[in-house]
């Protein structure tokens, strides 16, 4: 009887370890499922609402629809549809704003959530003299701009297909950060 006691003790420890480890694995899997996954906006841009990629995207991200807008708060994205029910514009919210979580996917054109108006203009700039890049750099000023909502400055870069919405109504606030990025097809 004394010989079986250590064996039973070892078996009890193994069962206890297996039970505890199994609970940790289940908790980790639950946490992974609850966390929003990275979302690539390019998968839906320019596609019809009937396209399977778009249907899957809207379902997976629990988007709500209001007319031509499809709001995906948990993904930090809003889709805008146009003629033929195609996704024409994607709003990306690089930081948590109001009801939107921060967009976790890669931002277009090398932009980052921490970019300021000055850094965006530098990224979108070009050499002053095409054959002599060391001659200096012109800022990438927008093709059009404005403050349609009287709260945010909108810089429209038609040649890149993006509009940068800043958290300021001022076109001269070089320290203003990105509120949203609109990518159009």
Describe what you observe in this structure.
The structure is a single chain. The protein is built from three helices and ten strands; from the N terminus they run ααββββαββββββ. The chain has 185 residues and is α+β, with helices and mostly antiparallel strands. The strands form two sheets. The chain has an eight-stranded antiparallel β-sheet, with no helix packed on it. Strands 5-6 form a two-stranded antiparallel sheet. The model is unreliable at 7-37 (pLDDT under 50). A hairpin with a 4-residue loop joins strand 8 (154-157) and strand 9. The protein folds into three domains: 1-35; 36-92, no CATH class; 107-185, no CATH class. The chain has helices at residues 4-34, 52-60, 117-123, and strands spanning 64-66, 69-72, 77-81, 87-92, 126-127, 137-138, 144-146, 154-157, 162-166, 178-184.
What attributes does this structure have?
185 residues; 3 domains; two-stranded antiparallel ribbon; 22% strand; globular
Secondary structure elements and their pairing?
Layout: H1 4-34, H2 52-60, E1 64-66, E2 69-72, E3 77-81, E4 87-92, H3 117-123, E5 126-127, E6 137-138, E7 144-146, E8 154-157, E9 162-166, E10 178-184
Antiparallel strand pairs: 1-2, 2-3, 3-4, 4-10, 5-6, 7-8, 8-9, 9-10
Order of SSEs: HHEEEEHEEEEEE
Q: How are the strands of the largest sheet arranged?
A: 1-2-3-4-10-9-8-7
User: What sort of overall outline do the alpha carbons produce when their principal axes are compared?
Assistant: globular
Q: In whole angstroms, how far apart are the ends?
A: 79 Å
Number of strands: 10
Overall radius of gyration: 25 Å
- Helix/strand-derived category reads alpha+beta
**Helical coverage, percent range:** 25-40%
How many distinct folded domains?
3
Uncertain stretches of 5 or more adjacent residues = 7-37
- Largest beta-sheet details: 8 strands, antiparallel
